[in-house]
TrEMBL record:
Residues 268-372 form the HD domain. GO terms for molecular function: CCA tRNA nucleotidyltransferase activity. This is CCA tRNA nucleotidyltransferase. Its EC number is 2.7.7.72. It holds the Pfam family PolyA_pol. Residues 389-423 form a coiled coil. InterPro entries: Bact_CCA-adding_enz_type3_sf (IPR050264), HD/PDEase_dom (IPR003607), HD_domain (IPR006674), HDIG_dom (IPR006675), NT_sf (IPR043519), PolA_pol_head_dom (IPR002646), PolyA_RNA-bd (IPR032828), tRNA_adenylyltransferase (IPR014065). It is an enzyme of class 2 (transferase). Keywords: Coiled coil, Magnesium, Metal-binding, Nucleotide-binding, Nucleotidyltransferase, Transferase, tRNA processing.
Length: 484
């Protein structure tokens, strides 16, 4: 197929995608035409239309200033947002569609922060050249008749056909203006399965330290989008190999130095990428917590690596060290407490199954496994299975069979007792009544004793639970008596 024919097919696909949004495009195009202003669909919306996957979040640009945009759309819109008005953007809600309309921009940057000195432009071409990548610098004129002329002054269609990310201007200028664009390149590699141009790779490698200018909140958003992409491994590898990882997630690149104990992988880094891929294969839908845990599950290995006398390598307690490292890094990136707790707990628990052996755990051990995982148990199942990357087919089959057996035992116990919510057989009020004590630390200690008993022995009859509690209380008080 010739390049020209291929381009025509891409444009035809874009038209089909745009026509699915034809009603809203014709309506808003008519509003701006009646007011004497131009309106263009731009950026990721045009790119995604060419890729045949346009969604209801649509980006537009116009020569109208923000206050005029508000005046044009207010009678038509279901909702308006002006949170981005300082940057020339008005948000519009119309039915299920979410539109962002931004006045032509011709910004300049201070080369210190990533905040532009907002300057409105008068020409579409000036707006397009300031965008991050040429595949995001295409536009479609929108009129009362719907989609009109396709505008591509910077070769975005060619770049999209060749699946290449390149910058409209020199990458050094583009990344100097906004270093976050370097991390966006890795994100787009993951989401779109594109590659970066040679000059973009060189510029990122040289300028990666400038990511230090970006707020950690914005970095975290890009990392999440990267991890949720179609091919996060490719995006992560670009990040690590160009030095961006040293700035935003140094623990990942640090794993390249640690050979794993089985010598099955070049390094722990490659093993972790394999686990991430395998975890994704087990998902019902993209799972950010699982993907973070798969990526970070072995970050404690470099710090715990020991060379043994027999020539082997060990990483004792790397799951404990790794969980602490996860907490430290994710706190630095200002993730939510829930996200930090979930990912670090999965990292902490990922090795426990290997003590299961050939099904020799007691029911108590199985209960504790379930109780410690809590609502994360389905994710832990996937992480543990994904962590089996041995090339020894017999060993891999044995590990999977053992985990099948563990899941069967969990299901059998769950059929007999409430494993999802392991609680003592007596509540706090009954503990206070039976022991004749007020609310305070002693109640918590008694509650913990009963919970441990519940984990060891399963559910108890009420009378048995009372007897155990009283026996524990009497023995505890006897130990505290002087001379005993």
């Amino acid at each position: 197929m010739s390049e020209a024919t291929h381009d025509l097919e891409l444009l035809a696909r874009a038209l089909v995608a745009l026509n699915r949004q034809g009603a809203v495009l014709r309506e808003i195009g008519g509003l701006f035409a009646a007011a004497g202003h131009d309106l263009y669909l731009v950026g990721g919306s045009v790119r995604d239309a060419v890729l045949g996957r346009l969604n209801p979040d649509l980006d537009f640009t116009t020569d109208a200033r923000p206050e005029i945009v508000q005046r044009i759309v207010r009678p038509w819109a279901d909702a308006l947002w002006d949170t981005g008005i300082a940057f020339g953007t008005i948000g519009v809600g119309k039915g299920d569609d979410r539109l962002e309309i931004t006045t032509f921009r011709a910004d300049s940057y201070d080369q210190v922060s990533r905040n532009p000195q907002v300057k409105y432009g008068d020409r579409l071409e000036d707006d397009l050249v300031r965008r991050d990548f040429t595949v995001n610098a295409m536009a479609v004129r929108i009129t009362a008749d719907g989609p009109g002329d396709f505008i591509d002054p910077l070769g975005g269609l060619t770049a999209l056909r060749e699946r290449i990310l390149d910058t409209p201007s020199a990458p050094e200028v583009s990344f100097g203006d906004d270093p976050l664009r370097m991390l966006r390149a890795a994100r787009f590699v993951s989401q779109l399965q594109f590659e970066v141009s040679d000059r973009v790779r060189r510029a990122i490698t040289e300028m990666a330290p400038q990511l230090g200018r970006i707020t950690v909140e914005r970095v975290a958003v890009e990392l999440d989008k990267l991890l949720l992409g179609v091919d996060p491994v490719a995006g992560l590898d670009l990040m690590v190999q160009t030095g961006m990882g040293d700035v935003v997630l140094p623990e990942i690149g640090g794993m390249q130095m640690a050979i794993d104990e089985h010598h099955q992988h070049k390094d722990v880094y490659q093993h972790s990428l394999t686990v991430l891929r395998q975890a994704m294969e087990l998902e019902e839908q993209p799972d950010l917590v699982l993907r973070w845990a798969a990526l970070l599950h072995d970050i404690g290995k470099p710090a715990t690596r020991r060379h043994e006398s027999d020539g082997g390598v060990s990483f004792h307690h790397h799951e404990v060290v790794g969980a602490k490292m996860v907490r430290k890094r994710m706190r630095a990136l200002k993730y939510s407490k829930q996200m930090i707790d979930d990912v670090s707990q999965l990292v902490y628990l990922h090795l426990r199954f290997h003590g299961y052996g050939d099904g020799k755990w007691t029911d108590s051990a199985v209960r504790r496994y379930v109780a410690d995982a809590g609502p994360l148990l389905p994710k832990l199942h996937k992480l543990v299975r994904a962590d089996c990357t041995t090339r020894n087919k017999r060993r891999a089959a044995r590990l999977q069979a053992n985990y099948d057996q563990l899941e069967t035992r969990i299901a059998e116990l769950a059929a007999k007792e409430d494993l999802a919510r392991v609680r003592p057989d007596l509540d706090g009020n009954e503990i206070m009544r039976l022991l004749d004590i007020p609310a305070g630390p002693q109640v918590g200690q008694a509650w913990n004793f009963l919970k441990e008993l519940r984990l060891d022995r399963g559910p108890l009859d009420h009378d048995d639970a009372v007897a155990e509690l009283l026996a524990w209380w009497n023995e505890r008080n006897a130990e505290d008596e002087p001379g005993v």
